[in-house]
Amino acid sequence: MNSMAGRKKGYDKKSETSMKEVLGDIAGNVSGGKAHRRIDIREAIWNYPIFFSKLFAKFIPFSYIFVFGIIGIFLALFLQSKYFVNMVNGSGEGDTYVEGTVGAISSFNPLFTTNNYIDKSVQSLVFEKLIYIDKEGKPYPGIAKEWTSSENGKVYDFVIDDNRYWQDKTKLTVDDVVFTFNIGIKLASDYGYDTIGTAIKDVKVEKIDERTVRFTLPEVNPTFFELVSVYIVPMDRLKDIDPRQLLFDSFTKYPIGSGKYKVVRTEDTAVYLKDNDEDSFNPQIKSLVFKIFPDMESLETSFRIGSLDAVGGWDRKLFDFVSEYGKYSMYEKKEVNRRRLLFLNTRKDSLKEKEIRQALNYMLDKDMLLNELEAGGYRAIGPIPEESWAYNSNIEDYEYNPSKAAELLGGKDYKKNENSGYYQASNGEILSFTLSYLGNETNDRLANILVDLYKKEGVIIKLERCTFARLSQEIIATRSFEILLSEVETTLDPDQYNLWHSLKSDYPNLNLSGYNYERVDILLEDARNTLDKETRKQKYFLFQKYLNADSPAIFLYSPSFVYYVRSNWKGIDLSNMNYSYDRFYGIENWKWEN
């Protein structure tokens, strides 16, 4: 059989050519057309261009798929590399800082309130606030360099710094400040948007002179400084836009601020920022990049190939892979004003009785939960953090006490069945509840630990894993849950009117438990109607006592923000951070050291 016959046979549709035959044919052609069933390795190597071209032709289209697949892999690795980022931004080593995070971009327009971690991080770099709040809850200068109050705390005058400029080189004026607050109020009052003006709808904001803005309050408000600690936006850029279109304007992706950095490019997978030449700072970091990944697996891959300077989050276990690398430093900060908790829906018949809610609190071993979760964080005792001046250390902290839980349940006709191990009512009904939660890796782990811990105590927990859309638009909007795993972020001030006052029970307000106790309502109202700290402290002490006793929620823990940064970067300090998106405080002092 000659080589032509071999090839003809190889392409017969009713026969199958083995890899050995194909390579034999190729080798035969390379050696001058003689018949060969075995590859002559020596001649194949000698004539490798012809050999590989024949091999490529034999396996079309698979050969094309293979080649382009290899090219695609190397291209993807190159685009992920820090070298590419530096090349695009015209920066060298130490000039560019690349941070990776999981999530998605929503809007960089700070007029609209958001819980989006990426949005808030970018806003903190692009914009400046009227004033800032330190970790003690006290105001310090931002765009406003000084202020005074009068009429017993109902009028505040702020004098703005006359040497601030927008990133388009135009001057920042008092008109920008007045515009920011009034458009925020208009968006909230006239169109129902959740904005920086939502909490100050009744406040009058006006220009007094070329450097002074005045806020006139209808009544005193001890949280006022936090309410006006907001980012200021440029009037000339936004004043001619229909307020209803502000959410869709290009400003949401390409904002103009007066902060330390400006956005130069926005993509679905990355945001690129450069140093703002118009401010007074001269940071070593000239380019800052947020790389955005759809999941932790993608972020981990990028980290492993060395394309990221930093990663961070609130679940230490998700970042176990960082420990395999010795050139990263870990920074950690407890976010005292964030609480992970279980809202117990007091509207439901199954949870109306406070003894049932108390029993669920006593039978949950929260220390064990934190140990098994391995996320980091600190056990939460009640609604107000232990670090606050208003914290009451004498409230019921619900230490693990299954005997106390059994006593409370026994008084409500529930006894533990010795055979099944579950609590049952006299009619045979097993004590069970449904836990609704947002599905993600951390919540999945936490929810399953809760199922196991309660099962061990004799209570069945059924899980309802939800998408964000379903949880927010159906479960929370209609208050249709029994138990809701959630997280709240409170102000530095201990005011918690919006979370626990009975008037805030209906959607879209935040009293998700539907908690209703007139005495607590009065305490919350009185505490926010005076500026006297000692009086407020007494009110909040009683508030915590009554709330914890009624147990409308199970407080689990305050998460810790963990931040892993390439060890060459020095000067990072999270001690002044109130929230995770404040981590770039003092970024102008960060330095790269070889």
Protein described:
The protein is of the alpha+beta class and 594 residues long. The protein is 32% helix and 20% strand. The strands form six sheets. The chain has a seven-stranded mixed β-sheet with strand order 8-9-10-1-11-21-12. Helix 12 packs antiparallel against helix 14.
Question: What is this structure's SSE topology?
Answer:
Layout lengths: L2 H8 L8 H12 L10 H6 L1 H11 L3 H19 L1 H8 L6 E7 L14 H10 L4 E3 L5 E3 L2 E7 L4 E6 L13 H18 L12 E6 L2 E5 L7 H4 L7 H4 L22 E6 L3 E6 L11 E7 L2 H9 L5 E4 L14 E7 L3 E7 L9 H9 L3 H8 L4 E2 L22 H9 L3 E3 L6 E3 L6 E7 L2 H17 L2 E7 L1 H9 L6 E7 L7 H4 L17 H10 L5 H18 L2 E6 L1 E7 L2 E2 L20 E2 L2
Parallel strand pairs: 1-10, 1-11, 17-18, 17-19
Antiparallel strand pairs: 2-3, 4-5, 5-7, 6-7, 8-9, 9-10, 11-21, 12-21, 13-19, 13-20, 14-20, 15-16, 22-23
Number of helices: 19
Instruction: Calculate the mean pLDDT score and round it.
Output: 90
The helix content, as a percent range, equals: 25-40%
Q: Would you tell me the structural class of the helices and strands?
A: alpha+beta
Q: How many DSSP E strands?
A: 23
Distance between the termini: 68 Å
> Roughly how many Å is the radius of gyration?
31 Å
Largest sheet: 7 strands, mixed
Strand content: 15-25%
Overall 3D form: globular
Looking across the biggest beta sheet, what order are the strands in? Answer: 8-9-10-1-11-21-12
